[in-house]
Amino acid sequence: MTIGLPPDIELRQDVAPVPYRAALEEMAARNTVIAAGEARELIWLLEHPPVYTAGTSAARAELLDPRFEVVEAGRGGRYTYHGPGQRIGYVLLDLRKRARDARGFVHALEGWVIAALADFGVESWRSEGRIGIWTRDVDGREAKIGAIGVRIRRWVTMHGFAVNLSPDLSHFGGIVPCGIEEFGVTSLQRLGIEVDPTAWDRALLARAGEFLAMLDRPCPPAEPAGEPAR
C-alpha cells in the first residue's frame, strides 16, 4: 500500500503522456461509476502532451496564440496550459463520505500541494483573488507554480491540480494563464530545484493522509491569503 493512501482509493501513475481528451473521457466515466457505488475512488497522477484547456469562465481574448490543441475542459476557471514537465493530479473522491464541502475540498487540495512543495524547500501560498499556488520567483516577484481547477458532479470530484516541475515555460505564452496578466509562471526547475515525477509523486503521496483527513471536517473560516509574513 502506498504511504498515506488507504486501499479503498485506487492510485494510478502514468509515465507516458496521456492525451487530454482521453483523460477527460476517462474521468467522466469514472465519476459516474463512483457516484453509483460501482468503483473505487481514484487519484491519478500523469502528464499530458502540450494542450490548452478552457474552463467554464474562459474568455476568448485570453487565448493569445493557439499553437496547441484547445480543449473545453468542463472544470471551473479559465485557460490553462498542460504539457511535459508538468505533473497533473486528478482527484476523484466521493464527498458524500466526507464533509460535503466544496470550498473545503479546494482548500484541502491547495494545502496538499503547498505541503508537498515545502518538502522540496519551496515556500508557496494561496493568494486572495488569484486562483492557484504562488511562490517567489527568481526575479523576486510572485509567480504561479501550481494551478487548481475542479468540478464536482453528483458530489464526486473531478480534475484537480497541476504543478510545474520542469515544463517549457514559453508554452504558457499562448494564453493569459487563468486570466491573470500581471503575474508570471515559474517552475521548480526555474527555481534551481530538479525534481522528477517519481520524486514528486513520492512526496505528494506521503502527505495524502493529511489531505484526506482535512476532507472529514468543514473548511475553516476564511483567513487572509497571500505570502506569509517574514
Question: Can you characterise this structure?
Answer:
This protein has 230 residues and is an alpha/beta fold. It has a single domain (9-214), classed as BirA Bifunctional Protein, domain 2. The chain is 22% helix and 27% strand. It is built from four helices and eleven strands. The protein has helices spanning 20-35, 102-118, 197-206, 208-214; strands at 9-13, 41-46, 51-54, 70-72, 79-82, 86-92, 124-127, 130-136, 142-153, 156-164, 184-185. Strands 1, 2, 6, 7, 8, 9, 10 and 11 form an eight-stranded mixed β-sheet that branches. Helix 2 (102-118) packs antiparallel against helix 4 (208-214). It is globular and about 45 Å long. The mean pLDDT is 90.
Specify the number of helices: 4
How far is the first residue's CA from the last residue's CA? 39 Å
H/E topology pattern: EHEEEEEHEEEEEHH
Instruction: Assess the beta-strand content as a share of residues.
Output: 25-35%
Number of strands: 11
Q: Point out poorly predicted stretches.
A: none
Under CATH, the homologous superfamily reads: Bira Bifunctional Protein, Domain 2
CATH class: Alpha Beta
Largest sheet: 8 strands, mixed
Overall radius of gyration: 17 Å
Number of domains: 1
Taken from the alpha-carbon principal axes, the silhouette is: globular
State the CATH architecture. 2-Layer Sandwich
**Structural classification:** alpha/beta
- The name of the CATH topology is BirA Bifunctional Protein, domain 2
